[in-house]
Design goal:
- This protein has 616 residues and is of the alpha+beta class.
- It has 3 domains: 6-78 and 273-326 and 343-492, Rossmann fold (3-Layer(aba) Sandwich); 87-266, no CATH class; 523-615, Roll (Nuclear Transport Factor 2, Chain: A).
- The strands form 6 sheets. A 9-stranded mixed β-sheet has the order 2-3-1-17-18-19-24-25-22, with helices on both faces.
- It starts with 5 loop residues before the first strand and ends with a strand.
Length: 616
């Protein structure tokens, strides 16, 4: 059993969401994506964003020795108002004659991303429209419809258009959209170059803005829209090869480039869908596969972290548009306009919701038994506050709390976005998950994940002295400390178990016991349909003894001889006739882990319905 695999959930720039897949074919692994490197995360979920900590946490995980994790993107996918849901950025290419099909509205104010209907029409999001006036023609798209007949556009109007410009519906040949929903798709710059009547070349780049180098670039030659069986059929090529975009044929004819100067355009209408995020988007439900509920379906996850449970905003960033001509005054953002800046959509959970999310993380670990939760305290807690914080918010609950650990303080990480300067304060769970993974891979899960130097960190937000750490230890809060000449280190290995629950005081005890229990459970499955007699019980006892001897020889259990390290009891004394008649096989296992010097005892009950672990 691997114990080093982490599961993360939070806000991402891009990536799959449950609504991207048909319900009848939906597989949790399509959205809870297995990631093997930071580069792979960048390709699927994008980079650092100002509105969350997920990307920083995953980067910290890999920088500190992690090798594999699962990532789930969180967004308001089921918001009651569709305009608050995440949306694809897209652009429809016109077909047929360049003349629009009937005037349907007029622009009232060129600085408003909207027009007013002047003719009966039922607009739909994604409809291709042409706006003409004053010698300027611009292609745009319908984003959404407001009460009163006003229609929102997917992007701002050209500054050369004036009030009274006509709006007309245009025929579309195909629609290019971003590979996943989100504001990121509005940075996709597409160049279409016709190569003849039936083929074209396509270049797609991520253009972050003026004076910045494009971060991703894809180029496709000799694409066609005519024959779905052709090797160069554009929708199939992009589906198989593109990490940035998809293409759908919606009409017939050939691409008309008259309204696209140079064949260059940006996708429009992408939206992150974070302004209406709720606790449910993080947790999901029994039949609602989102957030934590998706990670529950992934058996490999052994470490659970949700850094955006404590995401908070400080001073809001300016949303003022930058004019093309720096000498011109930038217009004020239009009221009700589609958000073009992702910072406008960042809405953190309340402090109460954050704690509820963390309690659900702990509860999931307790129910599944084979994973632990890394809990981040809120930003800005002082030492005196953080000591009481787990107790005050009900995080210390026996026996669930033995499946969780809290680390303090927050850490300062290098930040290429420079939102708070060269470094940004981050919750520690991503770093600690990497330290867990590094310790497991190098020494084994039996070793306490402490005295581990952290990488990809500049400083701690709060210095902790020896005396101050004593107070943290008494309240089961693990310190992260900066030592001159030794770096920044994880300096604690306590779980959140209550002080009365002394057997489970250390988190590596919980993790090692979970690893042993799952290994025992899996290794005894062969006995399910065997006759429950002396021969079977002797065979099971022997196989479990061999298994535990292997763990003992690797240093996972204490003692100079096996009798000091473990025992296995599977005989007639704990398998009386009543148990046999009930179709069960009962084995009692005791193991001595280095931290508590006594035996920790658990019982495995195996029957046709499966195995059940009972801890004493």
């Amino acid at each position: 059993m691997r114990t080093d695999i982490a599961g993360f959930a939070g806000f991402a720039e891009r990536g799959p969401l449950p609504e991207d897949f048909p319900p009848d074919t939906f597989d949790p692994s399509q959205v809870a994506v297995k990631i093997g490197s930071w580069k792979e995360y960048l390709a699927i979920f994008g980079g650092f964003r100002e509105y969350g900590y997920l990307a920083y946490a995953v980067r910290a995980f890999f920088e500190n020795g992690g090798r594999t994790c699962y990532v789930v993107r969180v967004a308001a996918t089921t918001a009651a108002d569709a305009s608050n849901c995440p949306a694809y950025a897209f652009f429809s290419l016109p077909s047929g004659p360049p003349a629009p099909v009937g005037t349907i509205g007029r622009i009232v104010d060129p600085f408003q991303c909207a027009f007013t209907l002047t003719a009966p029409w039922s607009p739909r999001p994604g409809d291709l429209i042409t706006i003409a006036g004053g010698g300027t023609t611009q292609i745009n798209h319908v984003a959404s419809v407001l009460p009163g007949g006003q229609v929102l556009l997917a992007s701002r109007l050209s500054p050369t258009l004036s009030a009274g410009a006509s709006v007309a519906l245009s025929p579309a040949l195909c629609t290019i959209r971003a590979a996943s929903r989100g504001n990121w798709g509005n940075d996709l710059k597409v160049t279409v170059t016709p190569l003849g009547a039936a083929s074209f070349a396509l270049r797609i780049i991520v253009d972050p803005g003026p004076n910045q180098t494009p971060t991703e670039n894809e180029f496709y030659r000799n694409l066609t829209l005519d024959d779905p069986t052709s090797y160069n059929y554009a929708p199939a090529v992009l589906e198989k090869q593109s990490n940035l975009a998809r293409l759908e044929v919606v009409g017939s004819g050939s691409i008309v480039m008259d309204a696209l100067p140079g064949g260059v355009f940006y996708l429009q209408g992408g939206r992150d869908g974070l302004s209406a995020v709720t606790l449910r988007d993080f947790t999901g439900g029994s039949a609602d596969l989102r957030g934590l509920r998706l990670l529950e379906e992934i058996d490999e996850v052994a470490i659970l972290a949700v850094p955006d449970a404590v995401f908070h905003t400080r001073a809001p960033l300016s949303l003022t548009a930058v004019p093309d001509d720096p000498c011109l005054q930038a217009p004020d953002p239009a009221p009700n306009a589609v958000a073009e800046d992702p910072t406008a959509e960042a809405t953190p959970l309340s402090s109460q919701e954050s704690v509820q999310l963390q309690l659900q993380m702990i509860d999931q670990c307790r129910r599944l038994q084979y994973r632990v939760a890394l809990i981040d305290p809120p930003y800005g807690l002082q030492l005196s506050q953080v000591q009481q914080w787990p107790l005050d918010h009900g995080l210390v609950i026996t026996p669930s709390s033995r499946f969780a650990a809290v680390y303090y303080p927050w850490l300062k990480s290098p930040d290429p976005l420079e939102l708070e300067g060269p470094s940004r304060a981050l919750p520690p769970s991503g770093y600690v998950a990497g330290a867990y993974a590094q310790t497991d891979l190098q020494y084994g899960v039996q070793r306490p994940p402490a005295n581990v130097e952290l990488n990809y960190v500049v400083d701690v937000v709060q210095e902790i002295s020896d005396l101050q750490q004593e107070g943290l230890n008494l309240n089961n809060v693990n310190a992260i400390r900066a030592f001159p000449g030794r770096g920044i280190r994880v300096w604690g290995a306590r779980s959140l178990a209550s002080l009365r629950d002394t057997d489970w005081r250390f988190i590596h005890v919980r993790r090692l016991m979970s690893a042993i229990e799952e290994t025992v459970q899996r290794s005894s499955r062969w006995a399910v349909f065997q006759s429950n007699d002396d021969a079977l019980r002797s065979s099971v006892q022997h196989s479990l003894t061999v298994l535990l001897e292997g763990i003992w020889t690797k240093g996972g259990l204490r003692g100079t001889k096996t009798s000091d390290a473990f025992y296995v009891k599977c005989d007639a004394t704990n398998n009386p006739q009543a148990v046999i008649d009930n179709g069960q096989l009962v084995c009692q296992v005791g193991v001595a882990i280095a931290a508590p010097m006594e035996f920790l005892v658990f019982e495995i009950r195996q029957d046709a319905a499966g195995a059940q672990i009972l801890e004493n």
